[in-house]
Amino acid sequence: MSHGGHGGHMEMTTASTMLNNGTTPTMDHDQMGHDDMMGHGMMMYFHFSKSVTILFESWSVNDATELVFSCVAIFVLAALYEGLKVLREVLKRRYSYVVSVDLTETKVYGTGPNQTTVVTESKGELPRSRICNWHHLVQTFLHVVQVTISYFLMLIFMTYNVWLCLAVALGAGFGYFVFGWKLNKVVDIYEHCH
Question: How far apart are CA 191 and CA 8, in angstroms?
C-alpha cells in the first residue's frame, strides 16, 4: 500500500492547521522565489530608497555612495543611447544607396531650323545585394545594441527608484542636447521605448 498520496495530503492539512492556529508555516526557497516574482518583494511605486538591485543580481546598491556611482553610470548609458541613435541615422544618410532611377535629360541647342535636341538617359546604380553589404550588417549590429540598451534603460526606470529614474531622464536629455542637433527630422522612427 502506497502512502505517497497520503503524505502530501498530510502536509497540506498540517500547513492549514498551522495557519488556523496563527502561526506561519516555513516556506522553502522555491516558494519564496515565486512570491518575489509575484511582486511581493518589489516596490511598485516611486520611492527614494538607497537600496536597489539594478538589472543584475551582482549590481546591488546598498548605500548612498554606490547609488551615486550607479546614477552616474546610468546617466552615461542614457546619453550614449541618444548618441547611438544619431550615429545610426548619420551612417544611414552617408551610406544609403541609390535605388534604380531612370534619369532623362533633354538639352536644346540653337534656334529655328538649326535647332538640335539631345536626349541623354542614365540609370542610377543598384547595389548587387542590399542585404549582404557591410553597411547593412553594421546597421543590424547597431540596431541590436540600441534595442538592448533601450530595454535596459526601461527596466532601470521600472525599479521606480526616483534617483535612477532621474539618471535615465537627465542622461537622455543631455545626450539629445549633445548629439541631437545633427538630426533635422521631426519623427524618430527608430524610437523603441520612450
Answer: 52
Lowest mean pLDDT among 1-10, 45-54, 87-96, 178-187: 1-10
How confident is the prediction for the chain on average, in pLDDT?
75
For 14-32, how does the pLDDT look when each residue is reduced to its tens digit (9 = 90+)?
444 444 455 544 544 444 4
Does the reported pTM lie above 0.70?
Answer: no
| Alpha-carbon gap, residue 193 to 151, rounded angstroms | 7
DSSP one-letter string for 70-132: HHHHHHHHHHHHHHHHHHHHHHHHHTPPPP--EEEEEEEESSGGG-EEEEEEEE----S-SSS
First to last CA, the chain: 62
Strand 102-109 and strand 116-123: the pairing is antiparallel
DSSP state of 21: T
CA torsion sign, 174 to 178 to 181 to 186? negative
Is 87 within 8 Å of 78 (Cβ atoms)? no
Mean pLDDT, residues 155-160 taken together:
95
Query: What CA–CA distances, in Å, run from 77 to 47, 55, 70, 150?
Result: 22, 13, 10, 10
Name the residue type at position 97: Y
Residue 2, amino acid? S
SS3 47: strand
